[in-house]
Each structure stands twice: as structure tokens, then as C-alpha cells.
């Protein structure tokens, strides 16, 4: 691919970007999923321990880089539901909704790209 870049040598490390997104999103999901299993969740309508376990599983899959697109797709579905509930409550782009939008953007980027460096998915091909 021929593209303009201010720092062309950095393009050789393009697989690092999905790695960073994958690990940060995965660790975030693990953290908040763990809080939900401990009964300390503060999410709208999704504070059950079952939902927390689901978030932890998705987070682990993302950190390890296995079934990355499936994990990202599940996260996209969950976040779209959360965002629609917030919009219905009239809380769009406030009350932490901007945080959900950022997580949604991260999950979508992983859904439409490769899992990046150091992913088990890359070994399965």
C-alpha cells in the first residue's frame, strides 16, 4: 500500500496498533466485569454477575488474541444495546456515554482489522 506518512519507518510496525487497542479494551472489560461479579458494578441495567463473567471472558479473549473478531462483535452488540438504553433515557453524550462510544470505536476497529501482533489468531491461520 502506498500511503503518505510523516514517519514512514513506523508503518513497519502497523500490527502494533491493533495489539494496543486489543489489550487495552480487553483489560478494561476484565476490570469492569470483575467489579460486576463482586456486586460493585455501576452500569445501567447490566450489573449481574452473569454479565460480569461474560465481560471477563470477552476481555480474556481480546488480551490473548483468540477469536478476536468474535469477541469484538459480541462487545459491539453489548455496547450498542447499552448506548440505545442511554439514548432512550435521554442521556446521550453525557453520563459516561462518551466512554461507551470510545469502547465501541475500539471494538469496531478490531472487528474490521486483524488482531495485530502477539495474537493466537495469527498462529491459527
Write structural notes for this entry:
With 125 residues, the chain is mainly α. The chain has one domain (19-124). The chain has helices at residues 16-37, 49-64, 68-88, 97-111, 120-124. Helix 1 (16-37) crosses helix 4 (97-111), helix 2 (49-64) crosses helix 3 (68-88) and helix 3 runs antiparallel to helix 4 (97-111). It is globular. The mean pLDDT is 88.
Helix and strand arrangement:
Layout: H1 16-37, H2 49-64, H3 68-88, H4 97-111, H5 120-124
Characteristics:
0% strand; globular; 125 residues; mainly alpha
State mean pLDDT (0 to 100 scale): 88
Helical residue percent band: 55-70%
How far is the N terminus from the C terminus? Answer: 22 Å
Number of domains: 1
Beta-strand content estimate:
under 5%
Number of E-type strands: 0
| Total DSSP helices | 5
Shape: globular
Q: Let me know the largest β-sheet.
A: none
Class by SSE composition: mainly alpha
Over the alpha carbons, how many angstroms does the gyration radius reach? 16 Å
Order of helices and strands: HHHHH
Low-confidence segments, ≥5 residues, pLDDT <50? none
Amino acid at each position: 500500500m502506498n500511503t503518505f506518512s510523516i514517519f514512514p519507518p513506523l508503518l513497519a510496525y502497523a500490527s502494533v496498533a491493533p495489539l494496543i487497542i486489543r489489550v487495552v479494551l480487553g483489560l478494561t472489560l476484565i476490570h469492569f466485569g470483575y467489579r460486576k461479579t463482586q456486586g460493585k458494578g455501576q452500569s445501567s441495567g447490566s450489573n449481574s454477575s452473569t454479565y460480569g463473567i461474560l465481560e471477563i471472558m470477552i476481555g480474556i479473549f481480546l488480551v490473548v488474541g483468540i477469536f478476536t473478531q468474535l469477541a469484538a462483535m459480541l462487545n459491539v452488540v453489548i455496547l450498542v444495546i447499552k448506548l440505545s438504553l442511554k439514548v432512550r433515557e435521554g442521556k446521550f453524550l453525557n453520563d459516561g456515554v462518551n466512554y461507551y462510544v470510545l469502547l465501541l470505536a475500539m471494538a469496531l476497529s478490531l472487528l474490521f482489522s486483524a488482531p495485530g501482533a502477539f495474537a493466537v489468531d495469527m498462529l491459527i491461520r
